[in-house]
Structures are given as structure tokens and as C-alpha cells.
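Researcher: I've got a protein sequence and the SMILES for magnesium ion. Could you write out the 3D structure of the bound complex as C-alpha cells? I'd like something to compare against our soaking experiments later this week.
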Amino acid sequence: MSDILEAPAPMADGSRSGEVVLEVQGVMKSFGPLAVLRGIDLNLHAGEVLGLVGDNGAGKSTLVKILSGYSPQDAGRILLKGEEVRFRSVEDAAAHGIETVYQDLALIPQLPVYLNLFLNHEMTHYGPLHVLDKRKMRNLTRQYLDDINVNVPNINAEVGQLSGGQRQAIAVARATRSDASILLLDEPLAAMGARESRLIIDLVRGLASSRSVSMIIIDHNFAHLFELCDRVNVMQGGKITINQKTKDTSLEELTELMVSSYRSQIQQAGRA
Ligand SMILES: Nc1ncnc2c1ncn2[C@@H]1O[C@H](COP(=O)(O)OP(=O)(O)O)[C@@H](O)[C@H]1O
Ligand SMILES: [Mg+2]
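Model: Sure. Here is the predicted complex with magnesium ion in place.
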């Protein structure tokens, strides 16, 4: 009872548990005549895992690209801890603590695990020649993968030789290594078997609880989302139509809600 009245504990990045870290207000985006996002409103709390579902073509990846600084919205606002931001690039969003794991992963298969982890942030020995400090990068890679419980037996192996689940884990590790506070994951479990999905689900849950990373995760498997997420948002017709905490609902109820929401949209479209 009393815990409701107590102030939440401070998090590693100075934010407070449960505080709104990201707010999206009325975000719109069209491609030519195609209005994909028609006023998206959502928020994300510190250490929360938010699931985003919706049909193929609903605009989920479009929203992720806007939030990751890849492309700008046409209208609407994005706020980080209450402050409006306008990202100029992916690097700019990263500087604000937002990292993204895309479907294509953006890893380099021919490079070893530890160099992929430091891609574009390579460490060099002190001096004018910028000689790579491989030992330091190897040590930090081992340490970080240990920290977040990712089991990759050989960090000198080329990423291309790893399983899909291990590659996805490396991509997540890379995105979170540099103190990202918000992580966007676009279908991280696509094309993954049950055991591999397990690996990523555990990793995501671990990052949310131990490092207080807030996440938006896209997946169209409801069962996965129920295991992964604290809350689920459904995107239909360019808007968020359903916003449910997973602990307050069930797989059956959410499916039911989605179906009836689709029905009423179809009816509305019929009347229009
Ligand atoms: N760069 C683009 N140019 C034109 N149309 C696009 C572009 N990106 C996405 N679209 C269209 O926007 C809609 C939403 O796409 P997307 O965000 O990828 O959906 P989702 O990720 O939910 O499957 C689709 O109809 C898609 O074809
Ligand atoms: Mg997509």
C-alpha cells in the first residue's frame, strides 16, 4: 500500500522509475497521397517495454524511423522527458539516447564480434597513427556481453558465422553498449526459432529491469508480446486505437478488442 505514496527510486540515468521518458503527440506522416500516420499519440515510461502491433503496412516501421531520427514527421511533436526535440539525423537521435535495432541488423558479417560491437566507435591506442586497440575492445566486449548475459563463445568469430539469435543479441548489445536509454526494436524476433526467441526475450527483459532501458518493440506475435511487454499499443488506420497494460488483460481479450476495433473501422469506412 505505502509504496504508492513513496517516490520512485532514481534510475542510473537520473530519471525516476515510471517517469514518462518519451512522448509522441499527434505525429503525422504521408508518402505522396498515402497518409500512413494520422496523428499518433503514445508515451513510454522509464524501464518500460512497450509493444507495438498492427497489420502489415500499418506504419509501425515508419514511426520507428521518425523516432530514430532517420526521417522527419510532417506534423506533431516528440518530447523527451518533457522537452520537445527535433532530430536532424540518426546520430542526433543517438546523442539523445535513442538507439534502434533495424530488421536488417546493420552488422558486418565479415568482421569479428568485438569489432561489430564497436563499429564506428573503434578504440585506438594513444598517438597519431590511430592503431586499433583490439585488446581493450576485446576485453570490454567480453565484460559487456557477460554483464547482459549474452553467451557468445568466441568474440573473435566473424558475425556471419553466428546463429540468427546470436546475431540479433549482438545487434542489441551494440545498440545498448553506449548507454542508450531508449531502444527501438523493429521485429527482433522475425524469422527466429523458439530457442532463439527465448534468448532475445530474456535479453530484452534483463535490459529493461537491470539497466532501466525503455523500449518500443514491434512484433506481430501476440504470445511473444505478452511475455515481453508491460504494455501493448495497437496501431490501426494510422492511429493508436488500443492501449492496454499486459497485466490487466489477456491474450484472448486483446485479440477480441482488436477484432472489434477493426469491425467498427470497417463500418465507419462503409458509412463514409
Ligand atoms: N519511403 C517510402 N515511400 C513510400 N511509401 C512508403 C515508404 N515507407 C513506407 N511506405 C508505405 O507506408 C506504409 C507503411 O509502411 P511501414 O511503416 O513499413 O508499415 P509496417 O512496418 O507497419 O508494416 C506502407 O504502405 C508502405 O508501403
Ligand atoms: Mg515494418
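Model: The longest strand covers residues 20-31. Residues 60-61, 186 surround magnesium ion (ligand 2) (CB under 6 Å).
Researcher: Great, I'll pass this along to the crystallography team.
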